[in-house]
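I hope you will forgive my troubling you with a question about protein structure. You will find the record immediately after this paragraph.
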Amino acid sequence: MTYQFEGIDHIQLAAPANCEEQARKFFVEILGMEELEKPPELKKRGGVWFRCGNHQLHIGVENNFQPAKKAHPALVVKDIKHLMNHLTDQNVPYQEDDNLPNARRLYMEDPFGNRIEILEWQS
């Protein structure tokens, strides 16, 4: 083979039109991600981009939007207990799950109802 995959550049979650301010409030103000500037030609489509560690999380506008209830990103975090306290303080509901060996994880929804998994691997 003359090619190889090197990793994931970004993941994208869909959202309804005019979602940008809600997305900023959730992903920047609550979760602490950094907003990234979209290229001018892509700004016309709506949506917003964020930095998530070494990767990007994109929120894209979708006509006839339906939230993803099963398909989801899984985001790795350091100090998940601190994050859970922060989510509780911000009134963001989540559910803990202990079904993955050697990981502490939770599930939550973004403001648009998309499922998000957050986990911390235990050593």
